[in-house]
């Protein structure tokens, strides 16, 4: 189902908390749902489709539908692919709207691993019976080992350096200083990153994303509904999803599934990577960003390190502005699902509502991309291209 010209993002909301003591996951889902609907100028009674991942409590969509009082649902989707889930939800919502199944789709995400003292486990997902668990790279629940392997391989294949990885964190920190809700607002240097403790060679502590509580929500609507709403119109014009796995041990970890999801999104949108002036990129680790830049076509394979160095990702300074909210590296990475925040900042940029010092001048086309699970293992990629109208 082609979605170009058939769906709009009308409402967004990011929970301001980073440590949610005293709040349940259901409460966080409700907070972000109401915030996004208010942003759009809609109410719970307008919602006829609901989307969530495994982070939703109980029976997921069914539990939250009752908790929120969603009485008019015609469509539900509880796709779970880790951090990329919510980009896939936007894609599926746009397809459902284009097919005439619904008109107002609400997508929510929330988690509170800090308040629950849960660590890095993927909320709502039982990993104990995974058939590959005895053969998993690294320690279960510690994805850094898998990403360290990807980084080390990238260094071996292409000569990427720790200094180049550090530039990704530096850019994110330059943006986070302007976000009052960012967990880490201090600007760091390449030297700061390299001098931070080594966690999994070659990744230092500052190469890793923050861990936060919180969440966010998005409202996707039909063109007919969007026409009567207050916010600047943000059209969904291109989407793509893809999966990649270990293929019985023959996996090439020098590229990710983003290679395919990006191609599909750009083909559907009818534009090229040269038309994108802002990109929200999943930043679980600094290497994640470099891999996505290559796989999406912003630079050639192996040239991601050179692309990001010397501040080239800093808004107003470099070749491509990225993650102007500070991203998962500095601002917000709720649990293990940072894809939602990528979408939220992409919409702010497309609306012209990012921080004035970081707002890109040419905002007609923006991109959001996320990877779910681990690049060194099986994973899912989602790419969304938005257009300001």
From TrEMBL:
It comes from the Bacteria. Transmembrane segments: none annotated. Residues 240-380 form the Thiolase C-terminal domain. InterPro entries: Thiolase, Thiolase_C_2. Pfam families: Thiolase_C_1. This is Thiolase domain-containing protein. It comes from Advenella alkanexedens.
């Amino acid at each position: 189902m082609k979605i170009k010209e058939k769906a709009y993002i009308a409402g967004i909301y990011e929970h301001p908390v980073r440590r949610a003591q005293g709040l349940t996951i259901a409460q966080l889902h409700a907070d972000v749902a109401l915030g996004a609907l208010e942003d759009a100028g809609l109410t719970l009674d307008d919602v006829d489709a609901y989307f969530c991942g495994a982070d939703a409590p109980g029976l997921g969509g069914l539990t939250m539908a009752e908790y929120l009082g969603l009485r008019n649902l015609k469509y539900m989707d509880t796709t779970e692919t880790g951090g990329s889930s919510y980009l896939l939800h936007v894609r599926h919502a746009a397809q459902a709207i284009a097919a005439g199944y619904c008109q107002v789709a609400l997508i929510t995400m929330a988690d509170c691993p800090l308040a629950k003292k849960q660590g890095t486990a993927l909320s709502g997902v039982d990993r104990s019976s995974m058939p590959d668990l005895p053969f998993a790279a690294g320690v279960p629940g510690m994805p850094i080992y898998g990403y360290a392997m990807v980084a080390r391989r990238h260094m071996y294949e292409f000569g990427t350096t720790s200094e180049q990885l550090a530039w990704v964190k530096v850019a994110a920190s330059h943006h986070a200083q302007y976000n009052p809700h960012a967990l880490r607002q201090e600007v760091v240097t390449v030297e700061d990153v390299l001098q931070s403790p080594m966690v999994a060679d070659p990744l230092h502590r500052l190469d890793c994303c923050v861990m936060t509580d919180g969440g966010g929500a998005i409202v996707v609507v039909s063109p007919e509904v969007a026409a009567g709403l207050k916010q600047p119109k943000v059209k969904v014009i291109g989407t793509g999803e893809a999966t990649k796995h270990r293929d019985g041990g023959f996996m090439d970890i020098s590229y990710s599934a983003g290679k395919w999801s990006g191609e599909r999104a750009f083909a559907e949108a009818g534009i090229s990577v040269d038309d994108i002036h802002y990109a929200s990129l999943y930043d679980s680790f600094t290497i994640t960003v470099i891999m996505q830049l290559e796989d999406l076509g912003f630079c050639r394979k192996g040239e991601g390190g050179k692309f990001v160095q010397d501040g080239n990702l800093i808004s107003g300074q470099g070749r491509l502005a990225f993650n102007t909210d500070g991203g998962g590296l500095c601002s917000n990475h709720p649990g293990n699902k940072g894809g939602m925040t990528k979408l939220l900042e992409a919409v702010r940029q497309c609306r012209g509502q990012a921080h004035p010092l970081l707002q890109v001048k040419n905002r007609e086309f923006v991109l959001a991309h996320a990877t779910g699970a681990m690049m060194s293992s099986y994973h899912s990629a989602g790419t969304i291209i938005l257009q300001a109208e």
